[in-house]
Amino acid sequence: MSVSEALKSRDASLLPSRRDEAWRYTDLRAAVRTIPEPSPLGTVPAAPGPFAAIKADRALVIINGRGPEVLSLDTGQVLCVELRLVADSHATSHQSDLRIDLASGAHLTLLESHEGRGAAYLSSANLIVHLAEGASLERVVILDEPSDAVSVITADITLSPGASLKQTVLTRGASRQRFETQVTHPGGGASVRLDGVYMLADKCHTDLTTIVTHVGPGGTTDQLTKGAVRDASRAVFQGQIQVQPGADQTDARMGHHALILSDRAEIDAKPELEIFADDVSCAHGNTVGALDEDALFYICSRGVPLDQARAMLVQAFGLEVIGRIETEAVREVAQAWLAEVGAGGSDGL
Amino acid sequence: MLSVSNLHVAVGGTEILKGLSLEIPAGEVHAVMGPNGAGKSTLSYTLAGRQGYEVTSGSASLNGEDLLAMAANERAAKGLFLSFQYPLEIPGVPSLTFIRTALNAQRKARGEDEIGAPAFLKLAREQAAKLKIEFDMLKRPLNVGFSGGEKKRMEIFQMAMLSPQFLILDETDSGLDIDALRIVSEGVNALRSPERGMLVITHYQRLLDYIKPDRVHVLAGGKIVASGGPELALELEDTGYDRFAQAAA
Ligand SMILES: Nc1ncnc2c1ncn2[C@@H]1O[C@H](COP(=O)(O)OP(=O)(O)O)[C@@H](O)[C@H]1O
Ligand SMILES: [Mg+2]
User: Fold this and answer.
1) Domains along the sequence of chain B with CATH
2) Which ipTM was obtained for this model?
């Protein structure tokens, strides 16, 4: 059961459904009755992407699944790449595949956006990423898709010893949206940071799924996901950390913290730590709560209208995650995203 | 200026204020003193517009305008300011950003232009210096990790920046050492003017050595049970609240 197979064979019955444990909260089969027609060629969007303010060394654009298929960095090469996956598609479907190879010691800053320019599309994007020894990837992803799109984005990332992955995904969700990251972690001084912020409104849905498999000793994983759901939106967080036999001295921590801003909104969180090694330090925290009424009153008592006070607290909540982005210019783009998305909504927010 | 008449307030179904009346004209400073649990904070929260403080009867107005009909932010825009007994921590929002947002929201509500960044910063530097607040502290998230005394000083700083018409100080002296008390009191006294009114709530007489009240009221059992001049505070220092608690019961 996979989205790729369903798209390839144009058979909706192959889409994952809630009967598949890993897709319990994101039932694609219920959302998509028939696979839509294949997307047309599409055109380069006139509007710039969300990372336009940053001067990248290279810009790659994939439209409706068509565009470059490989991005390789040589040994020691340092590059900043703007990667735009654009769906210029109305009620059609497509798939994008991209392979990214970082040779030893290479450093890639990947500014990745998934931009829905159309409506009601079904799209699938798969990244296969390989980091050689000592390579590092800073991946910041903005998902900017229409509320009637169905979109699945997966990345399968394999690290070599000494490699580093730092990832932050920012999303407003879609009709059904899944952002899945699978990491094979060799230990050996390699480090992984996997972060996310979701800000959902109306009937939007997002599913942030991570599966980190520690296969060798001495690796670190640090995850922090925060988000807010309002109206009738729904967020899913599934974080799995597997520490395999022999992956001793693994240090892994995972946090997921959510704000529920409406009683019609929903959070499904499933943190899972599976530990089969010794001398492992693993911790996870998961909290779901409402905005602090006392803090809201305090802000309002200073003259700030309630809507604005709520938006202030919601943004402040997400800011902790964005503060972990190392590159200042990228952090600023993320902050601007949060300010824009955190202020919107229709439940008096 | 502030006029409270026969105010009854219930919290969680329990009546806390039971017919409280108070008149504070412009230019005057009135102290409200009372034992713990008398309803002092209930009075300040009710005037400031906190949810859950249900006014079952009575009225409260500022300059003739019905306060109880306004949302908390509207009351602030009309010039009401409450210095909290327990100021809240607002993570992720730098103190200066917070105050500027508040000031501009108030100005917008009053149909005034927003204050520009240079003018705002100049004012902030002046006021911070007066209250002996390090400017760097104003870049930190509001009240997060501040000591009790620093939070109180930050309340007075916010007050000075927002320049309200009517000030309510709810136990501003609690948690302050003598030096901080003096700095904070000087900050408050600097705001005394013929156009402003103040309600100074305190448990102890000590604060009133620094902020000299025109009138002193005793709040016990949910109403004002005695009113007098500054000498009433000194008298209370000697005799305690017991006789008033009995009078209220
Ligand atoms: N949120 C609340 N819910 C229920 N009772 C409350 C609440 N806040 C205050 N009270 C009660 O109201 C009374 C007055 O409290 P408060 O106004 O805080 O007194 P003071 O500030 O004079 O010490 C106390 O008996 C207190 O227990
Ligand atoms: Mg009190």
Assistant:
1) 2-248 (3.40.50.300)
2) 0.95
